[in-house]
TrEMBL record, chain A:
InterPro entries: CheW, CheW-like_dom_sf, CheW-lke_dom
CDD domains, per the entry: CheW
Annotated organism of origin: Pelotomaculum isophthalicicum JI
Record protein name field: Chemotaxis protein CheW
UniProt entry keywords in alphabetical sequence: Chemotaxis, Cytoplasm
GO biological process: chemotaxis; signal transduction
Main location: cytoplasm
TrEMBL record, chain B:
The protein, known as: Chemotaxis protein CheA
GO CC, alphabetical: cytoplasm
Domain Histidine kinase intervals: 301-544
Alphabetical UniProt keywords: ATP-binding, Chemotaxis, Kinase, Nucleotide-binding, Phosphoprotein, Transferase, Two-component regulatory system
Catalytic activity: ATP + protein L-histidine = ADP + protein N-phospho-L-histidine
Record organism: Pelotomaculum isophthalicicum JI
Superkingdom in the source lineage: Bacteria
GO molecular function: ATP binding; phosphorelay sensor kinase activity
EC number(s) stated in the UniProt entry for this protein: 2.7.13.3
Biological process (GO), any one: chemotaxis
Length: 163, 687
């Protein structure tokens, strides 16, 4: 990874770039703990539909969500290139299933465009923006929003204790 | 000024010493002027005084100074132990406790004037004169000596010593060594100086006094003391300072301007006292290190990893053997050997870490004697309070939770259980009530009982009360057995006391007590006979982190039921299941048991309908429910892990555990499951 490199120009961000249903997305590298291969996921009943279940990450129980389901995108086959990206957002460690992780890219801040109201069926509220790099379009996600907004309400809805 | 670490060491010590004071003052109250207790108290007060003075907590220092003065007089037999004196002392201790809270930043402010005044009233003739003869000398005691010739005295010093000798004082070299584990060297050194100055005058020290006060010395330092005391007494007094490991006293004899050091006759007596002091010390100081509980948790996780890797290694050995067969020679055997050794080590490691998390229940129990004494006084009751088994050890998490419920139960017993002395005599009972708090092990549980020989509780009255309060209807009440009726007091909103006292109503908050106990997977039970007394039994797991569980299979997934809630497992024929208003039930030994399928609760596919079904019978309090599962896999010790904040509280699940092969299995939350099924309706609909 490019983490060990010298001074990064403050005018650019480093992004972990991954694929989801044929599209290219990016998230800020600072949020990424590690990237692991797919492993057996224990389903947890009565949680929101996009929560795939939990895994054992070196003795810690980590919830894993399916980003495709999260955005209601067409589901893809799990392949040998599928990965779980372990991120740390809002103090919680969470895994996200993606179709594949390709690289770490440097994205100059001035190349980030504001997102259109809707892109590939994803609402602009969940996006940081769009970056065009060597003729590729990378959609930059806003993890906080994705993981906590609407999810929280949905999680709560499920979590209501039947007294 | 002082680091957080130093302050926290100081606070811990303070807590410990306040406890020592509490215990010993109780002893004084019981047995009058026990010398041993007085000694302990004096020592504890002295330590607090010294360290709080160093830390700059003046209020505390002056208060403990007063306490110390009182005890000095009591030690000398000038002041007898009396009720009012003990009360005042307790008041002083409570003030100390508040001062401690003040230090840790709780928003309280204390005025110690009143307490100090009360303490002084007992002191009669003002403060006692300082013990030991002090040579008059205008010099500052802790003056900086001039450059020191290692091991030697300078001419100036010799002059001072000669002068003192003319007045009948002697000079001693005193070597003081602190324990290697000592964390507050400067404080201890200050105390040593304090003690020395009570006996005479320190005219020299190596290293310099300033360095010593700053803690800039290795394990020890030496001083020259001018005093009229005898060396044994000097040694003994210095040994009372905490964490002093060794004291050597040797007299300085000046012959023809030369210093001749001569060991003071170390007769059998001196040796004995030193040994006694040593033994005393060994008992008191177990070598300990403070460790963040978080670190222990991390260690525990790592051990879990090891166990899992060992399982993998086993698997690999099998595959390896299958592939290379006999061609592999001893390699498979070696691998198996490594794997089993690894398993053993991991198991031992786990056990040791578990033990590191355990604390003696004394941590909680020690608070109670004082509380019982105060309460009994307030209520004008006479009580023998017996505590047994405080060496029993529990996981620290459990210890943290168990305190409040116990306080509640003990208060209840005193307030509503044990009758006043006159009433007891009328009833033909001994005047003094007995309240017994006991902890003991039973298999891998700990049992805590709170037992009183007071009024007891009347099931009939409880039934009537519950109906009157509208908690249950009279029909249900009639059907209740006596033990069931006793359990009514755990219902929220139940209280048998018409006038709630300022302490606690028996029943006020009993539901809270039960909730606390439930939180830590405990079970609370109660036996009572009117007129004879009440015994409350709390059964707790030794640790929160590990439980025994019944593992079951559903589809191809495993679930764990905590064994504490499993009443039994039965296997039933499909045709035995009856329908009552869409609910499935079966008859077990003549009683109706509502059934529910785990596959329905967790929206899972069950395997095909079979004609034999496995049922896990779960019990919470008096409620029972049967859960149909695909397969019973047996019992297992599991380590409980939370599902994390992100998922929050998932209905019917209390967490997850990691199995030997690294897979995650979910743990069923029996309480919320039983709640969800609405057992009562099913039961009453069926009957």
């Amino acid at each position: 990874m490019a983490k060990g490199e010298k001074q990064i120009d403050s005018k650019e961000d480093q992004m972990v770039v991954f694929q989801l249903t044929e599209q290219t997305y990016g998230i800020d590298i600072d949020a990424v703990f590690e990237i692991i291969r797919m492993e057996a996921i224990t389903r947890v009943p009565r949680t929101p539909h996009f929560v795939e279940g939990v895994i054992n990450l070196r003795g810690k129980i980590i919830p894993v969500i399916d980003l495709c389901k999260r955005f209601n995108l067409p589901l893809t086959e799990r392949t040998s290139s599928s990965r779980i990206i372990i991120v740390d957002v809002g103090g919680n460690t969470i895994g996200m299933i993606v179709d594949g992780v390709s690289e770490v890219l440097r994205v100059p801040l001035d190349s980030i465009e504001p997102p259109p109201p809707m892109i590939h069926g994803i609402d602009a509220a969940y996006l940081r923006g769009i970056a065009i790099l060597d003729s590729r379009l990378v959609i930059l996600l806003n993890l906080e929003k994705i993981l906590y907004e609407h999810e929280q309400s949905e999680l709560q809805r499920f979590g209501i204790e039947t007294a | 000024m002082f680091s957080d670490e130093e302050i926290s060491v100081f606070l811990d010590e303070l807590e410990e010493k306040i406890q020592v004071l509490n215990e010993n003052i109780l002893v004084l109250e019981r047995e009058g002027g026990s010398q041993e207790a007085l000694q302990e108290i004096f020592r504890a007060a002295h330590t607090i005084k010294g360290s709080s003075a160093v830390m700059g907590y003046d209020k505390m220092a002056s208060l403990t100074h007063e306490i110390e003065n009182l005890f000095d007089q009591m030690r000398k037999g000038l002041l007898p132990v009396s009720g009012p004196l003990v009360d005042t002392l307790f008041m002083a201790l409570d003030t100390l406790q508040i001062l401690r809270d003040e230090i840790i930043g709780k928003d309280v402010s204390v005025d110690i004037e009143q307490v100090v005044t009360s303490l002084r009233q007992f002191q009669g003739a003002g403060s006692a004169p300082a013990p030991g003869g002090k040579p008059e000398s205008g010099k500052g005691v802790l003056k900086q000596p001039a450059a020191i010739v290692e091991g030697g005295l300078e001419a100036v010093d010799e002059d001072v010593i000669r002068e003192a000798e003319m007045k009948g004082f002697q000079a001693f070299w005193i070597n003081v060594e602190l324990e290697s584990s000592c964390q507050m060297k400067s404080v201890r050194a200050f105390l040593v100086f304090e003690t020395l100055q009570q006996m005479g005058e320190v005219i020299k020290s190596q290293p310099s006094a300033d360095d010593i006060q700053e803690g800039n010395f290795d394990a020890g330092f030496r001083v020259v003391l001018l005093t009229g005391e005898d060396p044994d007494r000097i040694r003994n007094l210095l040994m009372t300072v905490s964490e002093v490991a060794k004291v050597e006293v040797s007299q300085i004899k000046l012959a023809a301007g030369q210093e001749v050091r001569e060991q003071v006759a170390a007769g059998a007596r001196a040796e004995k006292t030193e040994q006694a002091a040593k033994a005393d010390h060994e008992v008191k100081t177990v070598q300990t290190v403070r460790v963040d509980v978080q670190k222990l948790d991390t260690l525990m996780n790592l051990v879990g990893e090891l166990v899992i890797d060992r399982t993998r290694l086993n698997r690999f050995a099998e595959i390896f053997e299958g592939r290379f067969g006999s061609g592999s020679g001893d390699m498979v055997e070696t691998m198996n050997e490594i794997s089993s050794h690894l398993g053993q080590v991991a198991g031992d490691l786990q056990e040791q870490i578990m033990k590191a998390r355990m604390l003696p229940v004394a941590q909680v129990f020690n608070r109670f004697p004082r509380m019982v004494r105060d309460l009994a006084q307030k209520l004008n009751k006479e009580v023998n309070f017996i505590v047994e088994g405080h060496e029993t050890e529990l996981d620290r998490n459990v210890i943290e939770v168990i305190g409040d419920p116990l306080i509640h139960l003990i208060r209840n017993s005193l307030d509503h259980g044990i009758e006043g002395p006159e009433e007891r005599v009328k009833l033909g009972k001994p005047r003094n009530g007995t309240l017994k708090l006991k902890a003991s092990y039973m298999e891998n549980h700990i049992i805590i009982t709170v037992q009183d020989d007071g009024k007891g509780m009347d099931p009939a009255r409880l039934r009537a009360k519950a109906v009157e309060k509208g908690l249950i209807d009279s029909e249900v009440a009639q059907r209740m057995s006596d033990p069931e009726a006793l359990n009514l007091i755990f219902m929220p909103g139940f209280s048998t006391v018409t006038k709630v006292s300022d302490l606690s109503g028996r029943g006020v908050g009993m539901d809270i007590v039960r909730n606390h106990i439930d939180q830590i997977n405990g079970i609370i039970d109660l036996v009572s006979a009117p007129g004879v007394g009440t015994t409350i039994t709390i059964k707790l797991p030794l640790t929160l982190a590990i439980i025994r569980a019944l593992m079951v299979e559903l589809g191809n997934e495993q679930f764990a039921f905590p064994l504490t809630n499993v009443v039994e497992t039965i296997s039933v024929k499909a045709e035995e299941i009856k329908k009552v208003k869409h609910n499935e039930v079966i008859l077990v030994r003549g009683r109706v048991l509502p059934l529910v399928r785990l596959s329905d609760i967790f929206e899972r596919e069950s395997c095909a309908e079979m004609d034999r079904l496995f049922v896990v019978v779960l019990g919470i309090g008096e409620k029972k429910v049967g859960v149909i599962v695909d397969k019973l896999l047996g019992e297992l010790e599991i380590v409980i892990k939370s599902l994390g904040d992100y998922l929050g509280k998932v209905p019917c699940l209390s967490g997850a555990t990691i199995l030997g092969d690294g897979q995650v299995a979910l743990i069923v939350d029996v309480r919320s499951l039983v709640k969800e099924i609405g057992v009562e309706e099913a039961v009453y609909a069926a009957s």
